[in-house]
C-alpha cells in the first residue's frame, strides 16, 4: 500500500476522524429509524413498500452529512458515495490511485432498514493508493462498531480485537467447507432464467449445503447457511471469525471497501467469487475493489500441517469447486 | 387460554421471575462465550468442529441453572428442556394441559454460538393449558431482550413495545409476498434426495424469491430472504415486525414456545408451514405447539379494504401457494 505521502501521525488523525464520523452518522441513522417507531412519517409507512422514500431521504441526508464533514476537514481528498454515484452520469470506476479517496455507503442494508431489521449500518472507507487503509462500520441498532486502520488492528467496539478468538486463532476446518458457517445473499437479480444469476447462486448454495457425497461429489455440508441482507455486515462478521466464508456477486465498492479494510487487517483473505478455469491450481489473487465479485475467508491460524494462509487458500479452492460463475459487470466496463 | 387456576397477580409474579431468569441465564451464555475470546478452553477451540463439546457443556450447565431455579421457586410446575428431553427415553410430546409447564431452550442457535455469531439466545416459556402464556428470549451478545406475558404486551428491552411501528401498524403489502422480508432456514436435513426436505425447502425459497411471473406463476419477488440460524430469533424479529414472514419445519417446542408467546402477544399470526389441499379456502388454524411445522406472519394493521387479520390470512395463503410440504414427524408420533 502506498501511504508514503501520508505520515503515520496523519493516518492516526484521519482514523480518529473516520471513527467519530461513523459514530455520528450511525446515530443519525438510528434517530431516523426511531422516528418511525412512534408514528412520525406515518403517511409513508402505511404501506411498507412506499417506505423506500424514507430510505432514500435518510440515505441522502446521511451521505450529505458525511461528505460535508470530510470536505471541511480534508478538502484535498476525493469522495465516492453511493448516492452521489447513483445520481452522477458516469458509471466508471471512480477510485483512482492519484488522490486519497473516501468511499462511503451512508446506509448499507437498505431493505433491512426499511423493515427495521437491525442488520443495517454506515460504511466509511479511506483509500490510499487504490487500497482500503481505514474501515469504519457502525450498526447502531446492534450497537456494534467495527474499525480498522492498516497496521493498527481490527476492533469491535474499540475494545475487543478481531478476530474474537485470539490467542490461538482456529485453523480452517480440515474438511472445509464442512464445519464452516457460509454466508451468502439472494440479492436483487431475481430473473427466473434457467442460467441466470439467481439459479447459479442457488445451485452454488445447494452445493455448499448438501451432504458430503451429494450433488455429484460437490456436497459441502457446511455447518450453517446465513443470509443477513448486508454485504457490509457479512464482511464484518467474517473479520470477527463468526462467518468462515462469504461468497457474493453484485456488490459495489462502497458496499465492501470498509469491510475489506477490516477483514484484511484482522487477517482474513479476500479474492474473487468466480471460479478460475482450474480451481485447484490457479493463483489466488487479491480481490480488485471494483470487481463486484467477492469471496472472503475468515482469519485462520496454523494447524499442525499447514499455515493459516494455506488453510484459507485450500478453503478458497473448495468454494470455487462448488460455485457457479456469476455474471455481474460494471456498466461501461 | 386456561389461566383459571392462576390469579393475575400470580401470573405477574411468574412473569417477573421468568424475565430475571432469562437475564441471568443469558449472562451465563455470554460469559461462557467470552471465556473463549482470550483462549480459555484453548484445546477445544483448536478445531472449530470440536467446539461442539463446549456447546454441549454450556447447554447443560445453563439448563441445569434454569431448572434448579424453577424447581426451587415453583416445585409444582412441570419442566421440559431441550437437554433433559434429549437425554430422556421418551420422544413423546411432553407438554400436557394438566400442570403449568416451563419449556426451555438454554441455548438456541447453537451453531451460531459455536462460531461466535451473535444470533444465539436463551428461550424460556411458561405454558398454561397447553398454550404459551409467557415468553422470554434474551440474546446477550446483541443485548436484545424480548419479553411477553398474555395481556401485558410484547416488549424489546422492557421499554419498547412490539411491533416497533405502533401508532399505525403497517398492513400487509397489497401484493404480498412481494414487499415482504421472508425468513427461512436451511436446517440440518441436508440429504441430497430429489424430493427430500432440502430440495423441497430450496424450491419453496426459490418460489418466494423469483420475479413475479417466474416459476410458472409462483414467483413471489419478496423484498429480501434472510437466514439467521435461530428459529427463536426468527420469531422474535417477526414479532418486532422486521420479518414479515417466517416459514420453517423441523423445530421442537422449546425452539418456538417463547417466540410464540411473544409473537401472539404482539399481534402476529402463527399457523402450519405445510399447505393444505386447497390453500385458498382452507381454515387457517392456530398452530399446534408440538407440530414441528410453523408459518408466522408479523403483526399487521388494517388497510382501507381489509382488517389486519384478513391481510395476514391472505399472506398465509400466498405462502402456502408457493411452499412445498415438508416431512418432519415426531419420533413415536
UniProtKB/TrEMBL annotation, chains A, B:
SUPFAM superfamilies, alphabetized: Carbohydrate phosphatase
Enzyme Commission designation: 3.1.3.25
Functional pathway: Polyol metabolism; myo-inositol biosynthesis; myo-inositol from D-glucose 6-phosphate: step 2/2
Needed co-factor(s): Mg(2+)
Enzyme class: hydrolase
Keyword Hydrolase (UniProt): yes
Membrane-spanning segments: none
Gene Ontology biological process terms in this record: inositol metabolic process; phosphatidylinositol phosphate biosynthetic process; signal transduction
Binding positions for Mg(2+) per the UniProt entry: 82, 105, 107-108, 255
Keywords from the UniProt entry: Hydrolase, Magnesium, Metal-binding, Quinate metabolism
Reactions that this protein is recorded to catalyse: a myo-inositol phosphate + H2O = myo-inositol + phosphate
GO molecular function: inositol monophosphate 1-phosphatase activity; metal ion binding
KW Hydrolase (keyword) present: yes
Family designation: Belongs to the inositol monophosphatase superfamily.
Protein name in UniProt: Inositol-1-monophosphatase
Organism: Parachaetomium inaequale
Amino acid at each position: 500500500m502506498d501511504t508514503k505521502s501520508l505520515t503515520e501521525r496523519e493516518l492516526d488523525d484521519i482514523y480518529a476522524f473516520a471513527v467519530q464520523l461513523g459514530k455520528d452518522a450511525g446515530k443519525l441513522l438510528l434517530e431516523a429509524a426511531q422516528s418511525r417507531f412512534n408514528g412520525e412519517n406515518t403517511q409513508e409507512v402505511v404501506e411498507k413498500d412506499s417506505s423506500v422514500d424514507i430510505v432514500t431521504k435518510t440515505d441522502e441526508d446521511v451521505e450529505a452529512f458525511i461528505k460535508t464533514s470530510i470536505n471541511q476537514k480534508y478538502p484535498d481528498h476525493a469522495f465516492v458515495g453511493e448516492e452521489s454515484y447513483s445520481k452522477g452520469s458516469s458509471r466508471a470506476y471512480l477510485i483512482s490511485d492519484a488522490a486519497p479517496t473516501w468511499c462511503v455507503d451512508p446506509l448499507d442494508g437498505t431493505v433491512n432498514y426499511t423493515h427495521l431489521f437491525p442488520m443495517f449500518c454506515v460504511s466509511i472507507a479511506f483509500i490510499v493508493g487504490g487500497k482500503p487503509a481505514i474501515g469504519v462500520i457502525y450498526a447502531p441498532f446492534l450497537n456494534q462498531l467495527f474499525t480498522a486502520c492498516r497496521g493498527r488492528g481490527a476492533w469491535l467496539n474499540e475494545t475487543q480485537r478481531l478476530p474474537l478468538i485470539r490467542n490461538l486463532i482456529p485453523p480452517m476446518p480440515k474438511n472445509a467447507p464442512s464445519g464452516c458457517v457460509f454466508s451468502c445473499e439472494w440479492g436483487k437479480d431475481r430473473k427466473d432464467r434457467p442460467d441466470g444469476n439467481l439459479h447459479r447462486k442457488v445451485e452454488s448454495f445447494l452445493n455448499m449445503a448438501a451432504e458430503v457425497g451429494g450433488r455429484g461429489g460437490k456436497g459441502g455440508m457446511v455447518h450453517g447457511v446465513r443470509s443477513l441482507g448486508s454485504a457490509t455486515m457479512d464482511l464484518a462478521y467474517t473479520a470477527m471469525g463468526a462467518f468462515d466464508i462469504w461468497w457474493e456477486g453484485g456488490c459495489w465498492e462502497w458496499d465492501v471497501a470498509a469491510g475489506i479494510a477490516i477483514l484484511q487487517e484482522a487477517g482474513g483473505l479476500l479474492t474473487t467469487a468466480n471460479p478460475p478455469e482450474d480451481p485447484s491450481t490457479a493463483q489466488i489473487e487479491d480481490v480488485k475493489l471494483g470487481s463486484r465479485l467477492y469471496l472472503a475467508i475468515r482469519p485462520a491460524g496454523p494447524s499442525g500441517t499447514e499455515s493459516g494462509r494455506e488453510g484459507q487458500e485450500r478453503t478458497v479452492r473448495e468454494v470455487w469447486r462448488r460455485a457457479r460463475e456469476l455474471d455481474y459487470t460494471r456498466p461501461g466496463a
